[in-house]
Amino acid sequence: MPDILEIVKVIVIGIIQGITEWLPVSSTGHMILADEFIKLQVRPEFLEMFLVVIQFGSILAVLVLYFHKLNPFSPRKTATEKTQTLHLWGKVIVGVLPAAVIGLLFDDLLNDIFYNPVTVTVTLILYGVLFILLENRNKKVLPKINNLTELSYKTVLSIGLFQLLSLIPGTSRSGSTILGAMLIGSSRFVAAEYSFFLAIPVMCGASLLKVLKFLMESTLLGSEIVILAIGMVVAFLVSVFAIKFLMGYIKKHDFKAFGYYRIILGVIVALYFIFR
What we know:
There is one protein chain. The protein is mainly α. It has one domain (4-275). Helix content is 77%, strand content 0%. Helix 4 packs across helix 10 (188-217). The longest helix has 36 residues, at 79-114. The radius of gyration is 19 Å and the shape is globular.
């Protein structure tokens, strides 16, 4: 059984994961800073697996909140709605393909090259500026896509190509997806929802691969099972609130606040690693 201090650390990490996974602010940037101050006393190989698998808790929040919308067999849906739901899953699969293929082939290489404070600082600031510029442009441009059913397979493939950018740390998976969808003409609401759904196969697949890799090379200790369970539960609970907050927020506001936040965080990351 882990001691109280380690449990507190896991809870903090779960909170950070649950918030930053869904808001377009880069979970990697926050995790880099968190890792400097929160040192979990666990094996390095377990920590590597834990930081990926904890995301499964966040994914469960999407599945719970959007269960009806994502369930093609719901008895409350008409035949047309069931068909539309199946098409939605098809569009999720198409949107995931670019990142899935490139990620499987080059994920370790990209992390070796780009997983450093300089890259994270640059991408945090750059995409913060892009969000601000995009929202300034959108004041004069009405979205062409205001419903998930209006997303074509060609459009979701284009969004999937934008999601490739998230393979570079600091970009943000949700940030790159939302930015790409809005550039193509999606409303904020559609862009955010579609980014949630794209995360399901991506993060489930990543979690499964990490667990299998870990179990092939090692075994889970009792204390590690507790840490993993607490982390996922906290990430799930916080994700529920984060998703509801974001969808409520963008009904009345744009993404510029997140752009400014990214710029500030990027500067903080840069200053920390310059002067530490």
